[in-house]
Specification:
164 residues, mainly alpha, Ferritin, 5 helices, binds fe (ii) ion
Length: 164
């Protein structure tokens, strides 16, 4: 790999792999969560993620490439951590931990899409720039939603059970 075009394509394959891995992990999160709000957030994010996969396929098409993934160690690590939590934690600790794990994934995605959309612009891939910016905005909105859920509900439940 030497050029910006090559790192762009490599990173696109990396997020394509990551989004597909996330669609497999989210149903497990929804199933394990105790909070109905967290379950709902995971289910909603699953349908949004499927939509993002379609958008990424459009990005590949717009640059004349076919969609394919490349193993992404970062997302595998984050998912592994969430899997461990599902085995080790329960009750409010599980919910607070799972929500935090989802936010770690969002932050990872925000970092990736932020770089990708700028590279697309630099490379003159206007359609890819537009689509990647749309996904970035969705990831930021999801992260904000999760923060809101943490501070208004999930973490407060933890606090109450600690006091009890
Ligand atoms: Fe995503």
């Amino acid at each position: 790999m030497k050029t910006l075009a090559e790192i762009f394509e490599h990173t696109l394959k990396d997020v394509y792999f990551a989004e597909n891995a996330i669609t497999k992990a989210l149903p497990k999160v929804a199933k394990a969560a105790n909070s109905p709000e967290l379950k709902k957030a995971a289910e909603e994010h699953l349908s949004e993620t499927k939509d993002q996969i379609k958008k990424l396929e459009q990005v590949f098409k717009s640059i004349g490439k076919s969609a394919s993934g490349e193993k992404c160690d970062a997302i595998e690590g984050l998912i592994k951590e969430a899997d461990g939590l599902m085995k080790e934690a329960e009750g409010t600790a599980l919910d607070a931990g799972l929500l935090a794990a989802c936010q770690a994934v969002e932050h990872y995605e925000i970092a990736r899409y932020g770089s990708l959309r700028e590279w697309a612009k630099d490379l003159g891939h206007d359609e890819a720039h537009k689509l990647l910016s749309e996904i970035l905005d969705q990831e930021k909105a999801t992260n904000n939603k999760l923060t809101n859920l943490a501070v208004t509900s999930i973490n407060k439940v933890s606090g109450r059970s600690k006091a009890a």
